[in-house]
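User: Need the bound-state model for guanosine-5'-monophosphate:
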Amino acid sequence: RSTEELLRRSLINTEKLEVFYQPKVDLATSQVIGVEALARLRDDSGKIVSPIEFIPIAEETGLIIQLGNLVLERACQDCYEWNQKGHKIPVSVNISAVQCLHNDLVNTIETSMQTSGLEPALLELEVTETAFIRDFEDTLEKFHQLKQIGISISIDDFGKGYSNLTYLRRLEVDKLKLDMSYVRGMLENPRDYEIVKTIINLGQSMNLDIIAEGIETEFHRDALLKLGCQYGQGYYYAKPLPHDALLDYLNKPA
Ligand code: G
Ligand code: G
Ligand code: MN
Ligand code: NA
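Assistant: Bound-state model below.
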């Protein structure tokens, strides 16, 4: 398959892999509070290939381990750079279940911290529930080790999968990322609205930050703010941006 080919080549010829960054903001002030690293591949014609296409293939083929390491290294270096430039904001990196369950996860992360010089407090991992479903005890132990290093952890796409409150009782996580399907539905569908409200209240009572994904309009922002949601990201604020465009965005006043 051509995507697999491209993926393999990008691991050798690493400039074909690009990491874009989407700002995360404080909804009340629009101030940037962090960025999410999102991988992109560039094909031979220069066109961007979406992770929706290559991440599943990377997972099936096991290439996600190398790809994930590259994204992690790049994100740590870039975050170190903008922190040096006065933008004191953390970077979040998506970690697929395959990576999360891999024996080397904690070592790999420690190595990236050392190589980049980035302080652990500036790295956040986004993990979906798939990892906990596959091996809860293993995830529990790894999260514990990562927390001890000082890294924060978010549950990505919260509410979309098999959200189970047992996970929240035991896993050491800091944030829930409210899945964008609820944000999209909350203004039209009363059930979605109630679920959003419930997740925000759950976060507040468990001392977990809630960050809403997929905010596309001021109406979504206003509704979320009214329910007490503090953070968000989405096209209303900014799309995922290449490194230089992100720096421009950070240099612009909120
Ligand atoms: O960036 P975009 O919205 O197109 O991402 C589509 C999907 O690909 C999202 O679910 C996102 O989490 C995932 N994704 C993007 N970059 C990475 C990455 O570096 N690692 C993993 N595991 N998933 C990623
Ligand atoms: O699964 P994860 O949350 O990591 O996915 C992030 C994906 O969502 C990325 O592919 C990103 O490009 C996309 N995304 C970010 N903001 C918006 C938005 O406001 N609307 C839509 N439709 N997609 C978004
Ligand atoms: Mn994510
Ligand atoms: Na994700």
